[in-house]
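Subject: design request, 267 residues
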């Protein structure tokens, strides 16, 4: 028997952006996954996409290639929020992978750690080098809201993005213990074997990528994606096991923490 978790006061919900960074590999579409360090207050030990909470300064970034009005309509949010989400998506990708999605393209990897630590503002970095965040490089894909009952809650908009030609993602974030490329099918198989922990939004998002044979096909499909917010409900079993109830009635068990081990990724 299970019961829903509905505390008297729900934690506030913060806007966040997550980027599903993709490349074409020998076995098909590959995704970049980071495994969060176990000291993190949110998603500790989980494999996740690059991303994080929106910073107020993200709305002020110079943007190019963005139809902010259209994005706001699709995500059902205000235009300043849509603009901030695009900025956060580009900034978080740079902070957590070193991949810079700008026009013109540039190699500012030497400044990445300073941006991640807050010593250098991302907006200042772009202005100093005459760059604009390339909003056309991130396409909307999904929207998930953290269930009531979690101490930290986010309204996370997921974007898909292609690794730019001639650019390499790097395992550089201080918030991850490991990171690397993985074919989407293998990522799901590792999760099924209990070798990799995936939260429901990550699990479901990767699953949606299985039908596509190339990154170009994924990006083209973005225009037809339904971006309604998905908000599961927490369920606690008699044995204390936690799962989430999806809006369609599906139950998804929350992953148990595995023993520390190196997870195989694509080179």
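Subject: RE: design request

Done. Sequence follows.
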């Amino acid at each position: 028997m299970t019961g829903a978790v509905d505390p008297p006061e729900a934690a506030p919900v913060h806007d966040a952006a997550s980027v599903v960074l993709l490349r074409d590999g020998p076995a098909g579409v590959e995704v970049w996954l980071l495994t969060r360090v176990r000291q993190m207050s949110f998603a500790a030990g989980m494999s996740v996409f690059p991303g994080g909470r929106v910073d107020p300064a993200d709305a002020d970034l110079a943007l190019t290639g963005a139809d902010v009005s259209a994005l706001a309509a699709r995500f059902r949010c205000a235009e300043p929020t849509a603009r901030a989400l695009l900025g956060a998506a580009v900034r978080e990708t740079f902070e957590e992978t070193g991949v810079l999605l700008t026009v013109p393209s540039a190699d500012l990897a030497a400044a990445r750690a300073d941006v991640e630590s807050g010593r250098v503002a991302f907006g200042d970095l772009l202005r100093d080098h005459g760059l604009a965040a390339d909003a056309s490089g991130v396409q909307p894909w999904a929207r998930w809201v953290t269930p009531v009952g979690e101490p930290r809650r986010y309204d996370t908009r997921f974007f898909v993005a292609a690794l730019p030609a001639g650019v390499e993602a790097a395992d550089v974030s201080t918030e991850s213990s490991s990171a690397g490329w993985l074919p989407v099918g293998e990522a799901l198989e590792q999760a099924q074997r209990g070798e990799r922990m995936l939260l429901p939004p990550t699990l479901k998002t990767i699953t949606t990528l299985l039908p596509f044979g190339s990154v170009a096909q994924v990006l083209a499909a973005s225009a037809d994606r339904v971006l309604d917010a998905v908000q599961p409900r927490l369920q606690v079993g008699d044995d204390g096991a936690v799962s989430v109830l999806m809006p369609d009635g599906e139950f998804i068990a929350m992953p148990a923490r595995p023993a520390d081990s190196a997870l195989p990724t694509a080179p």
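Helices lie at 68-75, 79-97, 112-117, 122-128, 184-192, 200-209, 215-221.
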